[in-house]
Structures are given as structure tokens and as C-alpha cells.
Amino acid sequence: MPTPTKRELTHQRIVDAAARALRREGFAGVGVAEVMKQAGLTHGGFYAHFPSREALLAEAVQRAAEHRVGGLAERTRERIAAGISPLQAVIETYLSEEHMDATEYGCLVGALGSEMARQGDSLLAASREQVEQLVARVEQVLPEGAPPGQAVAIGGALVGILQLARVAGRNDAGHALLAQGREALIAQYVKQ
Fold first, then answer.
1. CATH code of 185's domain
2. From residue 76, how far is each of 42, 95, 134 by CA, in Å?
3. Please, what's the b/e burial string for 69-80 (b: 16 or more CB within 10 A of its CB; e: otherwise)?
4. How many helices (H) and strands (E) does the chain have?
5. Entry pTM
6. Torsion over CA of 102, 45, 126 and 167, rounded to 10 degrees?
7. What total number of domains does the chain contain?
8. Alpha carbons 73 and 78: distance in angstroms, whole number
9. pLDDT tens for residues 163-181?
10. Which domain holds residue 79?
């Protein structure tokens, strides 16, 4: 693999800063000037890397997904290695206190699900891809013979429970709501 150029490294730094800001602030809260500042650059250099703010956000959606997949997948594998069923491992990882508190590094669908549908075409397409990937990840761990649509139901429940817990707060009430949702999904969908 060739060594990235200085321009490529700078581009990556900008996209990383935008991906963190996207989860933290939402689509409307990501400003070009602030992203460039977070990347250690001046606002003037933005258009050397991106034709528009929307182009930056589309790349940020993809980068956010890459970061999410790596971290959540690793923790899921650890749970599976400890003897937990793959479906239970996905549920426990997605609905963990760690994921709830990792706003800047967690699942983009869980952070911005309700905002995604209100974006322009390119951002909507990038967001739709993230939803499809989440459902596909759940589908991969369902037991053989699971009814059609079960991955959608579980994926939707995961996102909804995470959002409700975050709204309740990063406190005892939020963590209790998260635990209740996690336990209910495991009781309903994981064969003991």
C-alpha cells in the first residue's frame, strides 16, 4: 500500500473531524470553519479538498461508519469468544453503556437516525447505506429460519432504545432504560 501524500493525510484529518462533529452536533451543526479548526487548518483551505459542505458530510457519514464498524465489531467478537450467541453479542454491544456514552464514535444511525431522512439526495443516499448495513449486520447473526423482517425489527429496536436512553441521560435513568431494553430484546429474540 503506497504511503499517503500530505494532501491525502490532510483530507483524512478533515473528514475525521467532520465525522466526530456530525455525531456530536448533527447535520445542521457541522460548520466548515469549525471542522477546519478541529483539523488544525484554516477555513480557506476547505475548497481545495471538497466542492461543497454536502460533499464533506457525505464522506463524513462513510468515515463515521468505518469507525463504528471497527469498534463495535471488535467488542462483539470478544463477547462471542466468551460463549455468548452472536445475536446476543450484537444486542449487548449495541446497547452497552460504552456505546451509549460514545456519541462521537458510536453508530451514526443511533446518533442521527431522525435527521437522516431530512437530508439532500447525496446525504440521504449515504445515510440509507448506513441503515442497510445495520440491518445486514443484524441479519448475519440471526438464527437460521428467522422470519422475514426480523432483522429490521431488531435493528429498529436497537436504534430506538439507544436514542431513548440517550434522551433520558447519561445517568442512572438512562442506563436503566438501556438495560431494560437490552434485557427485553434478549428475552424476546435470543433462544436460551
1. 1.10.357.10
2. 39, 11, 14
3. eebbeebbeebb
4. 9, 0
5. 0.85
6. 30
7. 1
8. 9
9. 999 999 989 999 999 999 9
10. 54-189
